[in-house]
Amino acid sequence: MVLPFFFLVLIVTQSGSVRPQQLQQQSKNIFILAGQSNMAGRGGVVSNTIAGIATWDGDVPPQCSPNPSILKLSANLTWVLAHEPLHSDIDFKNINGIGPGMAFANYVLGKDPNFGIIGLVPCAVGGTKISLWEKGTFLYKQMMKRAQASVQNGGTIQALLWYQGESDTESQEDAKSYKAKLQKFFLDVRDDLQSPMLPIIQVALASGSGPLIEIVREAQMGIDLMNLRIIDAKGLPLEPDNLHLTTAAQVQLGKMFADTFLKFLPSGPIVSPIRSSAPRNSSNFVVNILIAPLFLCIRMILFLTNIV
């Protein structure tokens, strides 16, 4: 059974009015959601072939229902109770529907009820090539701004969830340069978040806006970095546009994200240097201090190799 959108908004509005200040101050397990339209969510978005107008059907599956333990960093950098469409105020130039974020968070809490508050940081924007996510671009700066704001009042960045690449399947130049650009993006994110071992979970494409899907998929699967995991969306059902995942597919993808992330947790959530002023977990801090110089050496070797 799915919840009508108006009922969903009523629940969230009533719940959110109870303790808005407490939402900002709670310590959170934070996840950055970035990429393009299939991360932002187009599940349930249908286009009227006559009028050419896209609309969302408003159906929210129970796996994506609001949960008082799931928050979202809004476009104005405040924490609110999360609800679908998760990216509505971020990817605001497009019609958003169901994405993987809410299903992911609900699955994590279902598997580990003691996990704590989850803070989702939506950053995805539809139709964006990897070049638009390079360090120094508007999207990259916005993502970093939101990531840094997310930890100000208590929280730890646990992982980057990444789903992008459909727009890079249109030209040979984009597809063939994709691997190098994506790897640099991942390394830059870890650098700027001061978290050299930050878990990254990326999605291998299920579709593309061009014919070079397999080249981009091979690039995605060919990146070999520590704490980088890949989940494969190939074969998940698509909307009639043959580009975007259906609502059911997004729920399945959320579960795949959750199952993969939970394998990172043998004894508890990951402690990242990018966190609030709460007491630091000293053992994890030492690990990061020891790993950081090694990480910089690896980057230098990769850089020199590319020059040669």
From TrEMBL:
GO terms for molecular function: hydrolase activity. Residues 1-20 form the signal peptide. Keywords: Hydrolase, Membrane, Signal, Transmembrane, Transmembrane helix. SUPFAM superfamilies: SGNH hydrolase. The keyword Isomerase does not apply. The chain crosses the membrane at residues 285-304. It holds the Pfam family SASA. InterPro entries: Carb_Esterase_6 (IPR052940), SASA (IPR005181), SGNH_hydro_sf (IPR036514). Gene3D superfamilies: SGNH hydrolase. Residues 28-262 form the Sialate O-acetylesterase domain. PANTHER family: ESTERASE, PUTATIVE (DUF303)-RELATED. This is Sialate O-acetylesterase domain-containing protein. It comes from Castanea mollissima.
